[in-house]
Amino acid sequence: MKRTTLSLIAGATALAAVTGFAALTAPDGTAAPEAKATTRLPVERAGLVCPVPSTSEVAETLYTSYTPTGTGAATGTTGKTEQPTALLRAATSAGGTGKTGKKPTAPKAPATVTAPGKPVTAEADGGSVPALTGAATGTLAPGWTVQQTTVVPAGGARGLLGLGCGAPDTDFWFPAASTAKDRQDYVHLTNPDDTAAVADIELYGPEGVLKTQFTEGIPVPAHASVPVLLSTLTTEAGKRDITVHVTTRSGRVGAAVAAADDKLGSDWIAPAADPASSAVLPGIPGDATSVRLVAFAPGDDDADLKVQLVTATGTIVPAGADSLHVKSGMTTSVDLPELTRGAVGSLLLTPSDPKKPTPVVAALQVVRGKGDNTEIAFIPATAAVSARATVADNRAKASTLSLTAPGADAQVKVTASAGSEGGTPVSRTVTVKAGTTTVLTDLVPEGLKGSYALTVEPVSGGKVHAARTLALPEDGVPMFTVQTFTDDRGTVEVPTAHQDLGVLD
Hints:
Layout (H helix, E strand, L loop, with lengths): L2 E2 L1 H14 L18 E5 L2 E6 L9 E7 L19 E5 L1 E2 L26 E6 L6 E6 L7 E8 L6 E6 L6 E7 L5 E9 L5 E9 L2 E2 L8 E3 L3 E6 L12 E9 L3 E8 L3 E5 L9 E6 L3 E9 L6 E8 L4 E2 L6 E4 L4 E5 L9 E7 L9 E10 L2 E8 L8 E6 L4 E7 L4 E7 L5 E3 L1 E7 L3 E5 L5 E4 L2 E10 L3 E7 L8 E5 L6 E5 L7 E2 L1
Parallel strand pairs: 6-16
Antiparallel strand pairs: 1-40, 2-39, 3-8, 4-7, 4-9, 5-8, 9-10, 11-17, 12-16, 12-18, 13-14, 13-15, 13-17, 18-19, 20-26, 21-25, 21-27, 22-23, 22-24, 22-26, 27-28, 29-36, 30-34, 30-37, 31-33, 31-36, 32-35, 37-38
C-alpha cells in the first residue's frame, strides 16, 4: 500500500510554527530527505507570565496588552487559523519562602487584545492582585507584548515598578539582586502550564557561591506563583550585591526579581541576556545620580572587561572605571559616579583582550534624585533586536527611547502605535551612527489618547540595542522605570518542503 509523505511534512510544519522545531520521519522510521532550506513563519501561539505586582494596599497597577501589526498568522494543514485570542488569567498563589499566600483577586477587566495595532489596558489596585498567565493565538500571537506598570506612592516599596511580562523558560540570570538589610528582594516563580515545575535557585556573592537552604527542588504547582525572599535562603545574608541563577529541573516558569530598598525605592529586575563575552546595557538616564555596575562570570575563567559609555557623540571611557576584573564564580560590582553627566547613554562591556573572550552576565542599578526623594531602577544587559521588539505602556512627555549601535552604523524603523483610547500610529526610520546612542522623545501617535506602544525593527546595517525609560514624578520623587527591548519571537524558522514528495512503500 502506498502513501505520500505530504501530510507528514504539512503536519510537522504546523507544529514548527508553534514550537520552532520539527523533525520529519518516514512511516518506516527512516529519516525523511533533509531539508536544505528553511523559511520563517509567524508563530501560532505565544505565552507570557506577569508576576504578583505588589503587596502594598496602595498599589495601582496597569496592564497594557498589545500585538504589533505586520505579521500574519501561521496556517495549519487546512490553511485556516483558529479564532485569535489574547487573554491573561489569574494564577493561584502557592505561598513561598518568606511570604504567605493570598487568595487571588482578578483585575477589574481582562487585558484582552481584539486586533493587532491597538493597545488594550486593564487596571488592578491593591495588594492582593495575583500573578497572571496567558496566551495569544492566531493573528494576535506574533509579537504579543504585555507591560505591567505599578505605582506605589508610599511605604517601604514606594516607587514606579515596570516590567515587560516574560515568556516562560528554564534558565534565568539576575545580577544586581541583594540580601542586604535595607533590601527586600523576592524572586517570583510562576508556572503557566498544566503540570507542576521544579526550580533551583543559586546565589553568588563577592566571595563566590553562598551557602543556601531550601533552594533545590522548589515545587511550583501548575498555574501557580511562588515568591521567595532571597535573604531567607542563606545564612550569609547581608550581601550588598549578589547574582541569582534560576533554573528548572522539570517544567518551565516565568521569573523576575522584585527589589525594594528602604531608602532608594523599588523596581523589578528583569532577566539579563544570556552569558556572552560582550554586553550592552542601554538607556541610562542623563540625570542619574548614582550608577552601579554588577557583573558575574559563570564559567571557569576570570573575565577582564573594557568599560565604555556610548553617548550621542561617541564612545568614551568613564573616569576612573576604564576596566573591570570579574573573578570566576564571584559577583563583582563597581560604582560609576557622575557617569552620564546630563546626557542619556549606554554602557558597553567588551573583552580587554579580544583573544580572550569570557562570558559574563551584567546589570546596572540606577538611582535618580537625592536625599529622601530618590527612586531606583535596574537595567539588565540586553541582546540586540534581531527582528522586532516592542515595549507597551508609553505616555506622552514621559517616555524616552534609547537606541545604541555599538559596532556599525544601523537603521531601524520605530513605530508609535495608536493610543489605547484613540490616535493614529506614526513611524520613523532612524539612523544610529556606529558607537553612538540616539534618543527619541517626540515620536508620539497623532491625536494620542491613553498610552501607546513603541516597536523597533532593524532595517539595515549593524546591531541595535534599545531601552525605554518611563518617568512619572510624584510628590517630588523622580519615579522612573527602564525596560529593555527583547526580541518578540514573532516568527520561527521551519524546514521548507521540497518538490520531491514521492511515495513510500
